Amino acid sequence: MEDLQVTCSTLHSEHSAGLTRNQQEYRKLFFGVNEIAVKVPSLFKLLIKEVLNPFYIFQLFSVILWSADEYYYYAVAIVIMSVISIATSLYTIKKVSSTIGQIEEILSTDLVPGDLMVIPSNGTIMPCDAVLVSGTCIVNESMLTGESVPVTKTNLPNPFHGDGGDEADCPYNTEEHKRHTLFCGTNVIQTRFYTGELVKAVVVRTGFSTAKGQLVRSILYPKPTDFKLYHDAYIFLFCLVGVAAIGFIYSIALSIIHEVPAKTIIIESLDIVTITVPPALPAAMTAGIVYAQRRLKNLRIFCISPQRINICGQINLVCFDKTGTLTEDGLDLWGVQRVDNGSFFLSEENAYKENLVKSQFVACMATCHSLTKIDGQLSGDPLDLKMFEATGWVSYCLSKSRANFVCVCAPMQSTYEIGIVRQFPFSSTLQRMSVVARLLGEKCMDAYMKGAPEVVASLCKKETVPENFAEVLEGYTKQGFRVIALAHRRLESKLTWDHLEAKMDFLGLIIMQNKLKAETAGVLHDLHKARIRTVMVTGDNMLTAISVARDCGMIPPQDTVIIADALPPHNGSHFILSQEVNISLEDVCHEDALKRKEQYHFAMNGKSFAVIAEHFPDMLHKLMLHGTVFARMAPDQKTQLIEILQDVDYYVGMCGDGANDCGALKRAHGGISLSELEASVASPFTSKTPNISCVPSLIREGRAALITSFCVFKFMALYSIIQYISVTLLYSVRIISSKLLCSINIFLCFIPFVPFAVSLNAAWKELVSCRPPSGLISAPLLLSVITQILICLGFQIFTFLLVKQQPWYTADDHNIQNFENTSIFYVSCFQYLIVAIVFSKGKPFRQPSYKNWPFVLSVASLYAFLLFIMFHPVETIDDFLDVRTQNKRNAPLHQFPYYLLLITDAISPSLSL
């Protein structure tokens, strides 16, 4: 359900008038009650729902069929497996439902869109989405964004007070008016008010329509994962059904020829179908993901979307935010460049020298921020904090005598005090922030602004901006400095809020040094070595971003950077300008000129990106193939970039801080947020390690999980085919021991421990340049499976025919303890283990299987058991299994040549690799 379609002025009208009782009741019927009801179903309901799963219905049918054919042991074994599987599934579902239920707060069910609510001064947890119409709030939005830095929310511009401007008449939109919106589930830490007025907000969304409700809904009903592996798995299962159909027809035809009773024909024919679908397939297929998720947790990487782990194994491009991701969160003040009379002074390292204390430049540094005191400590954006600390000023707590001010700032031990009257917090869309302040003791107010230098300069009087502004800015940004511009304006008494950010006086530049994190260069080197492309997506200056990209190795020193500026079509012409290489649009489209460049990288800003996306979408796809730096990108543009990269067949990873990157993190195939929260809903993955070393770890575990899924699926498919071949051969002589078949399948009840053990292989220690396949329908995988099927089929048929050629062989149609059953039993059991070894792939995506002690132990134990009962017959075991180990003349069966076949069969893996 969309937002209430109203203009900002309508919200102020509802604020003034309020809703009548009839309006409230009508809107409650229309929008529903304000609750996010996560109903945790009872165990009984979960059990019924689980048992009615088509897979378990098929298993129930199979158990009934096996019982009718006296396969009691097998039926009991499968029932035990199913009960364990159902119990595990119920426990997981119950745990997930309870966890989701815990994030539900008690909401007021009486609230409807349009209601007016008063925000308590001591803070609260928002029960709905509401837009501020008076006052200011300090909010912790970590539940939504994963970013723990408090955010300042200001009231919506009021058209009735003359401060609305065009914004007051535009339709209210959650994204565009984010800085005025309090989101459901976020924690309001503090409220600020002016002239004694209460802090009020108008409800705009309730229940599942809120930001929190949409997140809960996305967790409860996740978007289906579109991955080739899962499509191919269904195709493979349909192929198994086709094989079962052939066996079904064969069994019926054979039974009719031998004049078998109808009841027996039905049971035996359906039995062929039931053994084709592996009972443990669903559980075994998810084992690799479960173990990978556990290993990721040990690496302090938390996952709320486990199915994404497999997809991460295919990632071949990773987008990185810059500040706080590639570089340190903290900024160091390197120096300042003040402006006086339209000219730059020499660079100064200290902004708080005695002769500057009362300057507008320092006043702007000390007041133009959104810092707040929480428990006596200043908290807020790291840049604001560093800039304020550099001034040497202090921020005073509010008092009743200064209720008209947000806060008061002053130099230490000084009576020179400036009170902040109103804040307009930083907007990533506008790329600036402003405050209105007043020097205590004066009546006139001042407006201070800081932001991106290009934006701030465009809002200043032309004569106050130095002529060499562009050259000085370029010089600093090329060195990798982060540059912030400051501006000031003395306000007239009748000036409205919406006109204050115009005709300002340019004050100068603040030069901040943003150092690379120690791990950044090494991680990017490893990614490049593995042929994983890296891209920077940032809101910072273009030249600063390019400098950082070169410093961290994202752009090698010898490579060319092409800075592309796109202009909208004008009089039928359109073109791209490059700062380093002259390139026309035609060159980009045909790439003839670019082919002469060995290595080149495109860089563009958000404006050019928007122009190209709107007017030249075909060219945008070509630019994406070599685009490395995207600067001054708005949050929605970051999301759009991820979608375009996916359109050109990239598996895209995204790593950011979880604040302005939320949309991109969710849209990427593998979005990972660097957050202190254990499991942020801002992205599928959250890393508590504050650097990008989590990215290769996630890709390595994704590759290991993907290969594990392939291995397990191939093993489970082969074990069904081997069983199918064995039963079909035994049906051909019309003598099959129910106990023997049960013994085979009871043995198979231990076999599922093998694929679970295979899933324990840890990820390979480093990333390699090749990637695992994305689907089962590929030549190497199909060749591997088909080769193993032919090997197993050939050995079983050869054994079946060879035993009949022995001089001591006697056909015994009435005794189920016969040579055919015994031979097929031993050969097929060895084949199960051999296939497990063949498909336990290790390097280059997983650690070798010999390092996986549970797998080695399980395979070795089963081999030892089989060899023991084969070479040292125990009468009790032989009778229980209906195995024949001696012929009628008491000649030991171990003289039979099929033991040589078993040895040959044991080395058959080499024939399929």
TrEMBL record:
Membrane-protein topology: Multi-pass membrane protein
Pfam families attached to this UniProt entry: Cation_ATPase, Cation_ATPase_N, E1-E2_ATPase
Gene Ontology CC terms, in alphabetical order: late endosome membrane
Transmembrane segments: 72-93, 233-257, 272-292, 706-731, 743-764, 776-803, 823-840, 852-871
Record carries keyword Transmembrane: yes
Keywords recorded for this protein, A-Z: ATP-binding, Magnesium, Membrane, Metal-binding, Nucleotide-binding, Translocase, Transmembrane, Transmembrane helix
Domain Cation-transporting P-type ATPase N-terminal residues, every copy: 2-71
Listed SUPFAM superfamilies: Calcium ATPase, transduction domain A, Calcium ATPase, transmembrane domain M, HAD-like, Metal cation-transporting ATPase, ATP-binding domain N
GO annotation, biological process: intracellular calcium ion homeostasis
Subcellular location: Membrane
Name listed for the protein in its UniProt record: ATPase 13A3
Species, as recorded: Takifugu rubripes (Japanese pufferfish)
